[in-house]
Amino acid sequence: MTSGNIQQPQQEGMPNMKVLMYIFPVTFLFFLNTSASGLSWYYFVSNAINILIILVIKYWILDEKKIHAQIQANKEKPKTEGKFQRRMREMMEKAQEQQKATEQQRGKKK
């Protein structure tokens, strides 16, 4: 619901638009502080527009079926084993072999 984590493209004509996003609420707070209904109206309209934008993106821009299909396709791809994973697997196999050898030696002693 917030625009804090949205990366906005840098445009040559409007370099200060990000600053305005922070200045407008503070400015309206001072101008409309004496009239509570004006400040409430500003916050209501701002939140309503943000909710509408989110709903438009969710229902008309994003295709959930396509995204889900892509996720399923990625799950089916074979996973490559990294160097660290390979070394950990080799160490686990060695530890299991040593444990089996120790158990066999204990079995012979009995």
Automatic annotation (TrEMBL):
Lineage: Bacteria, Pseudomonadati, Bacteroidota, Flavobacteriia, Flavobacteriales
Highest taxon of the lineage: Bacteria
Keywords per UniProt: Membrane, Transmembrane, Transmembrane helix
Transmembrane segments: 19-36, 42-61
Region: Disordered, residue numbers: 72-110
This protein's name: Membrane protein insertase Oxa1/YidC/SpoIIIJ
Composition skew (Basic and acidic residues), residue ranges: 74-97
